[in-house]
Design brief:
Layout lengths: L1 H11 L17 E3 L5 E3 L7 E7 L4 H17 L3 E2 L2 E2 L1 E7 L4 H10 L6 E3 L8 H6 L6 E5 L5 E4 L4 H10 L6 H9 L1
Parallel strand pairs: 3-6, 6-7
Antiparallel strand pairs: 1-2, 3-8, 4-5, 8-9
């Protein structure tokens, strides 16, 4: 009986926070940016986008930010089979604007797409996406379809390399062989 209860709890609550899977079309996100302007995820159609749920108080998120910055800088102008260019759409689960803005500046998050409704875990996009832990991310193609769930560091770069438009170079071949 105890095992049945444990299984029911496991299947009732999405412990991984990954309601979306590869191939799904992501729901649009419309939220205020750092300067109060309304930003829509759908405005980035045609680009490969990392939808990144994070917060200034989340140590694992902050630890991951330098890797995301490095990948953003390397791939932002690349052409992909299913998108032209790469960017990041950061959804903050912060509750204080000042802390959120300070973290964006401190971590050198230079992309333009930072949004939050400043409701913490009650963030509308996080609820719609089924986010129950952060960092949580979805790599989506130019049509808004998920191509990877929670890609981290080398995994994110591997996915971006896989979808690049140009042919595979010797460097790419060697890189894939090692990973």
């Amino acid at each position: 009986m105890r095992y049945i209860v444990i299984l029911l709890i496991f299947f009732t609550f999405n412990l991984s926070g990954q309601d979306l899977k590869v191939g799904d079309t992501v729901p649009d996100i419309t939220m205020e940016g750092l300067n109060g302007q309304i930003i829509k995820l759908s405005s980035l159609r045609g680009k490969v986008v990392l939808v990144d749920f994070w917060a200034s108080w989340c140590k694992p998120c902050r630890k991951e930010n330098p890797e995301i910055v490095k990948i953003y800088e390397e791939y932002q102008d690349q052409e992909f089979k299913n998108g032209n260019g790469f960017t990041v759409f950061s959804v903050s689960l912060d509750m204080k604007h000042a802390a959120w803005e300070k973290a964006v500046t401190a971590d050198n998050l230079t992309w333009k797409y930072h949004v939050s409704d400043l409701k913490g875990w009650d963030n509308a996009a996080a609820r719609e996406y089924g986010v129950s832990a952060i960092p949580q991310s979805y790599l989506i193609d130019g049509n808004g379809r998920v191509i990877a769930v929670n890609p981290r560091g080398g995994e994110l770069e591997k996915e971006l390399r896989k979808f690049r438009k140009r042919g595979i170079s010797l460097f790419d071949f060697l890189w894939f062989s090692e990973n």
